[in-house]
């Protein structure tokens, strides 16, 4: 086995000798070392700048990270599917304006103003002066009472 | 080591470069650039990528020169950086290919070495060399990465088994096994040596 390897190795070394000796085309090496020097200087400049100003962020052009490719692909496909299917926001679904459930819940929590005033009057907190100050009786207040319907219309 | 006709002491250049002498490092670059591009080209199969990766390897070598203690030869240490960079580049390329993003760069159909005006006066020999080069590069592209790297370093760069083992961080036995497998495939692809070849 060892002898076989040595024989094959020697044979290929001889056979490919001409390829080893063939020079590369000059254009392949044009400005090679100058380009290496330029890269080194550029990186040194960036490093020196970031060391001098420790608070500053140095931006480097990063190579494309292939790990992001699937994530971007999924996002892209999702947006294409959404756009092609004519997806609409929930508030305008089927052409009707819908009201968020929280708004309806808040509206239903309102109590009658007259009941409120009656309770205050029993406690002696609500006086005739207060009645006069609002310029009307509790019946007037009922008119401006917030009802579930009124809130819903206002939201719509 | 010599650059042009001027003999250069590599250890001296390394010492100067470690002290921040960029000109000294450039002389090191000039002495290894051709081999570096050739090795990178054999692994990556694209000259533009090979140039880019070889330059990047030199930059990384300069940045890590402080860690080079001279326990191994500079080129062995540098080749390790280069080969690892090429492996990363291939992985990235495969990932991009997998997700269909494409790199725009593929293994070149025409070998850039074809454009070289050979010093060899025998036209038949030139044609034979070109054919051989094209077949070799095509077959190298089919080899698994470790076999490809070992084959390139051994037969296209002329490194010893020990140097390849150090570069690839493998035992000499493992290197021989990779070379043997690669060589067998290559021999089958090349067929028997013709009279134009050695």
Low-confidence stretches of chain B: 113-120
| Average pLDDT rating of chain B | 80
Structural class of chain B: mainly alpha
Separation, N- and C-terminal Cα atoms of chain B: 28 Å
Number of strands of chain B: 2
Number of domains of chain A: 2
What is the CATH class designation of the largest domain in chain B?
A: Mainly Alpha
Instruction: Tell me the strand percentage band of chain A.
Output: under 5%
The CATH superfamily of the largest domain in chain B turns out to be: RNA polymerase sigma factor, region 2, helix turn helix motif
| Overall tally of domains of chain B | 2
Classify the beta-strand content of chain B into a percent band. under 5%
Q: If you consult CATH, what is the topology of the largest domain in chain B? A: Rna Polymerase Sigma Factor, Chain: A
Number of extended strands of chain A: 0
| Helix/strand order of chain B | EEHHHHHHHH
Question: What this model shows, in words?
Answer:
The complex is a heterodimer of chains A (156) and B (198). Chain A has 2 domains: 2-52, no CATH class; 91-155, no CATH class. Chain A is elongated and about 120 Å long. Chain A is mainly alpha-helical and 156 residues long. Chain A is built from 10 helices and no strands. Chain B is an all-alpha fold and 198 residues long. Chain B has 2 domains: 1-106, RNA polymerase sigma factor, region 2, helix turn helix motif (Rna Polymerase Sigma Factor, Chain: A, Orthogonal Bundle), CATH 1.10.1740; 109-193, Winged helix-like DNA-binding domain superfamily/Winged helix DNA-binding domain (Arc Repressor Mutant, subunit A, Orthogonal Bundle), CATH 1.10.10.10. Chain B is 66% helix and 2% strand. Chain B has 8 helices and 2 strands. Chain B has helices spanning 10-18, 22-44, 47-63, 74-98, 123-140, 145-156, 161-168, 172-190, and strands at residues 2-3, 6-7. Chain B has a two-stranded antiparallel ribbon with strand order 1-2. In chain B, a hairpin with a 2-residue loop joins strand 1 (2-3) and strand 2 (6-7). The longest helix of chain B is centred in the middle third of the chain and has 25 residues, at 74-98. Chain B is globular, with a radius of gyration of 18 Å. The chains are: A mainly alpha (156), B mainly alpha (198). At the A-B interface, helix 1, helix 2, helix 4 and helix 5 of A face helix 2, helix 3, helix 4, helix 5 and helix 6 of B.
């Amino acid at each position: 086995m060892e002898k076989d390897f040595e024989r094959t190795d020697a044979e290929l070394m001889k056979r490919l000798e001409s390829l080893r000796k063939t020079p590369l085309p000059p254009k392949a090496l044009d400005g090679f070392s100058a380009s290496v020097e330029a890269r080194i200087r550029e990186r040194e400049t960036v490093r020196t700048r970031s060391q001098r100003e420790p608070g500053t962020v140095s931006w480097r052009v990063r190579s494309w990270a292939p790990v992001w490719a699937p994530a971007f692909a999924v996002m892209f496909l999702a947006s294409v599917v959404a756009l092609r299917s004519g997806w609409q926001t929930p508030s305008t679904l089927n052409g009707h304006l819908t009201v968020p459930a929280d708004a309806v819940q808040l509206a239903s929590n309102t109590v009658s103003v007259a009941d409120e005033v009656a309770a205050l009057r029993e406690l002696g907190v609500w006086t005739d002066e207060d009645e006069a100050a609002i310029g009307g009786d509790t019946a007037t207040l009922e008119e401006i009472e917030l009802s579930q319907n009124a809130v819903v219309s206002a939201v719509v | 080591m010599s650059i042009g006709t001027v003999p250069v002491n590599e250890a001296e250049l390394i010492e100067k470069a470690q002290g921040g002498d960029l000109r000294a490092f450039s002389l090191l670059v000039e002495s290894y650039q051709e081999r570096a591009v050739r090795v990178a080209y054999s692994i990556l199969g694209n000259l533009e990528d090979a140039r880019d990766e070889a330059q990047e390897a030199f930059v990384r070598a300069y940045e890590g020169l402080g860690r080079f203690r001279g326990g191994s030869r500079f080129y062995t240490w540098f080749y390790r950086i280069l080969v690892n960079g090429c492996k990363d580049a291939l992985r990235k390329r495969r990932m991009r290919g997998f997700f269909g993003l494409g790199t725009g760069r593929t293994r070149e159909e025409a070998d850039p070495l074809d454009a070289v005006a050979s010093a060899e006066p025998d036209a038949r020999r030139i044609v034979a060399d070109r054919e051989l080069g094209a077949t070799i590069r095509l077959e190298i592209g089919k080899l698994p990465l470790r076999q490809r790297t070992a084959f390139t370093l051994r037969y296209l760069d002329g490194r010893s088994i020990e140097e390849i083992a150090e570069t690839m961080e493998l035992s000499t036995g493992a290197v021989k096994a990779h070379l043997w497998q690669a060589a067998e495939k290559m021999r089958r692809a090349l067929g028997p040596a013709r009279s134009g070849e050695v």
